[in-house]
Amino acid sequence: MPDAMQVYLDYSATTPTRPEAIAAMQEVLTTRWGNPSSLHIWGQRSAIAVERARVQVARLINAPEEAIVFTAGGTEADNLALLGVARLYDQPQHLIISRVEHSAIAEPAQWLEQSGWQVTRLPVDALGRVCPRDLQAALQSNTVLVSIIYGQSEVGTLQPIQSLGAIARNHGALFHVDAVQVAGRLPVDVQQLPVDLLSLSSHKIYGPQGAGALYIRPGVHIAPILGGGGQESRLRSGTQAVPAIAGFGVAAELAAQEMATETPRLMQLRDRLFAQLSEVPGLVPTGDLIHRLPHHASFCLLYADGDVLNGKTLVRHMNLAGIGISAGSACHSGQVTPSPILQAMGYGDRIAKSGIRLTLGRDTTEADIDWTAMVLKQILERVALIPALSEVVA
């Protein structure tokens, strides 16, 4: 492989906007730039673009179009689900989430807890899975909402959404699912899944950044968290980002069309990567290898020291080699903090600083996988010596 080869393997963070979505955005920007709330022809041209996209996004998850509320992204959709339900109640109630939620759920839950809500955070096993029995045991008479991430973005684990949703529905609690990593990669049918609210994001499926959606099952009511012009059925005030929404719609339509061939291809590449790295000493897969996102591979390093050798170290070394991956740990004020997801799965702080994630996409090839595996092996052979060398110097 040439030295200049670059490989992007961070598709769970964001995907490149596909040309068809860009073309739809350009068409809106040049000919449908009116305010979609305006009654004149300029506004109506724009409104038609929004409604076309609503149909396209709805079809991705087999939902009625009127059940789709556009937002500025998956984070806003998650916030609208939790806070929109909470605002229905004059007195604090009980909310259940898992310990492996995205921060877009974990932080609003913490805000609600600070305002008096009871929040139960369900444990997960070593693979990152919630046990349905734990949800059943956690339900209370005042449990009004259960929110569980479908596909965990850091370790790739898929949750038993069918079972969890059935338990919540039998209890009479609303069930919200963050499906940002799943939709467009695995079939999602809200007519079959027992979900009441479901979050989506455009830029995870080759649409533009800045657009997302919340599915709200017909008959379910939530309160808005933004006041203003009453757009999106009075649930999300603010002039819609029509170009981004149009691009989202096209990306959703194409994702639905391509899933039957693209998902098996990604799974094959993912498994090829796991196989090529399976014998690397100390490099251990994280998450559930069976119930797993099709494009997702993640690992931790058993001999990481947490400070010199950690996930961030590997990301930097891979970047210097022209390969883009990500780490689960965060860096605050120069100090690497452990991944709360890996901690919830039972990993100690030192190893929980060493997690890395490699996520594949439309442009990923077998050659990319083979090159990445070779480079990562070489980097690990090199950086594994860093702690030993630092001890000698000390």
Sequence-ordered SSE layout with sheet pairings:
Layout (H helix, E strand, L loop, with lengths): L6 E2 L10 H13 L9 H20 L7 E4 L2 H13 L7 E5 L4 H12 L3 E5 L9 H7 L4 E7 L11 H11 L2 E5 L18 E5 L10 E5 L14 H4 L7 H36 L5 E3 L10 E6 L9 H10 L2 E2 L1 E2 L2 E3 L2 E3 L2 H5 L4 H4 L3 E4 L6 H18 L2 H8 L1
What does the model show?
The chain is of the alpha/beta class and 394 residues long. The protein folds into two domains: 7-15 and 260-393, Aspartate Aminotransferase, domain 1; 19-255, Type I PLP-dependent aspartate aminotransferase-like (Major domain) (Aspartate Aminotransferase, domain 2, 3-Layer(aba) Sandwich), CATH 3.40.640. It is 41% helix and 15% strand. The strands form four sheets. A seven-stranded mixed β-sheet has the order 2-8-7-6-5-3-4, sandwiched between helices. Strands 9-10-15-12 form a four-stranded antiparallel β-sheet, with helices on one face. A two-stranded parallel ribbon has the order 1-11. A hairpin with a 2-residue loop joins strand 13 (330-332) and strand 14 (335-337). Mean pLDDT is 94; it is low at 387-394.
Short description:
By secondary structure, this protein is an alpha/beta fold. The chain contains 13 helices and 15 strands.
